[in-house]
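Reopening this one. Same input as before:
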Amino acid sequence: MIPSKIAKESESSHQVAFFSYCAVAENHGFSVADRWAKTGEIDASQSDPVRSLQWIHHIPNGGSRGDNAKSRKIQGAKMKAEGVRRGVADIFLPVPMFHEPTQWHGLYIEMKKPALKPKTCRGKGGLEPEQIEFRKHCNEHNFGYAVCYTWEEAVHVLKKYMGGWK
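Same output, byte for byte:
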């Protein structure tokens, strides 16, 4: 199934679509993944794998925690005890890139629900205070950081990061 069929209106479905794209790109390269995303076909003869995508991963930092208030509270406390932090971005690529004049240590992507894309930077769907603080930390310590509302935006950011922010 191609990413556009996977991605619905939820943040989660766009993350799944993005990681589906990344799996194809890891094994066959961006150009094959681009073609697959449009047609569903993979021409392995054109493969140019992007092996550095092997470790791209999702960071669980929220989501559904149960059906009632008590179970949500218990699950939230458990997640906090396990080290989950509010504000940390959803996706991380632990691959450094040197792009003049900066050495980036990795790329964080914060995914948001497409329908909540704000008209302004302070509009509904924008970053929460903890996310703004985390973004600031990333910027201060030379980590790439982007907010994306669709799998396509996330792919664009990933390719720019891998290719030099051109």
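So the earlier flakiness isn't reproducible anymore. For the record, The chain has six helices and six strands.
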